[in-house]
Design a protein that fits this description.
This protein is mostly helical and 238 residues long. The protein is built from nine helices and no strands. The chain has one domain: Methane Monooxygenase Hydroxylase, Chain G, domain 1 (Up-down Bundle).
């Protein structure tokens, strides 16, 4: 009975990893449709919008069933709850691939400024790296790689800020309209990377039983955040 329980747990992890792999591929297709102005491919992604919702709901249902029937404790319970959280993050990532596909459809026949195309391509490449590292961290249960995700995410945030600077330089109304769709997609890519970091946070919690490990890493990357956090806690306590 316990052996079957173990197999069921590992099966959930394998399926979540597969979802992450499919999401990476779908994100690449959506971004490619955006860059090329491929309305047909964009619509195909939109039409398949419920796919990841259904897959992640299935993961949640299986987690709930195991919790209800097997009464896991300690590490096993942490694992199952973490898989439910991680599946939810993947659902959100799937929603953002829809955002990119919709932007691709709406901007398909519009002239998009070349600098924004280049920025999307660069940002997407960084996001693919974060997504792939997140998938590998879960598949291998690699704590070190999970803790590295905030570092991989940092340049994604920097590029996103560049989009707004480029948008502010535009004066042609048609260009601004098309550029707005690109900025929306850049924001979606940034949020995808953020959910990857959240996934790493949950994985770190499962592996160690400790919370806020990634928050400590992020504070090392940004000392101002550490000071802000300390001030906020002090103000709350007062």
């Amino acid at each position: 009975m316990r052996e079957q329980f173990r197999q069921d747990m590992y099966g959930i992890q394998d399926d979540v990893v597969e979802i992450m792999d499919e999401l990476l591929n779908t994100t690449k297709i959506a971004v490619n449709a955006l860059i090329k102005g491929d309305e047909v491919v964009a619509q195909e992604i939109i039409d398949d919008g419920d796919r990841f919702n259904k897959l992640t709901i299935d993961i949640e249902d299986r987690v709930l069933e195991l919790v209800a029937t097997q009464h896991p404790v300690a590490r096993d319970l942490r694992f199952l709850l973490s898989m439910a959280f991680i599946a939810n993050y993947q659902e959100r990532i799937g929603d953002y691939t829809q955002t990119i596909a919709k932007a691709a459809r709406r901007s398909a026949n519009k002239e998009v400024p070349a600098p924004l195309i280049d920025l999307i391509r660069a940002q997407a490449s960084l996001v693919y790296r974060v997504m792939d590292a997140t998938r590998e961290a879960l598949e291998e249960r690699d704590l070190d790689l999970a803790l590295k995700l905030p570092e991989l995410d940092e340049p994604v945030d920097s590029l996103n800020k560049q989009f707004y600077r480029e948008l502010g330089r535009l004066t042609d109304e048609d260009e601004i309209e098309a550029a707005a769709k690109m900025v929306m997609s850049a924001r979606a890519l940034e949020r995808i990377a953020d959910y990857c970091v959240d996934t790493g946070d949950r994985l770190a919690f499962f592996l160690t039983g400790e919370r806020d490990l990634l928050e400590a890493v992020e504070e090392d990357l940004d000392p101002h955040k550490a000071a802000y956090t300390a001030d906020s806690k002090s103000g709350t306590e007062g």
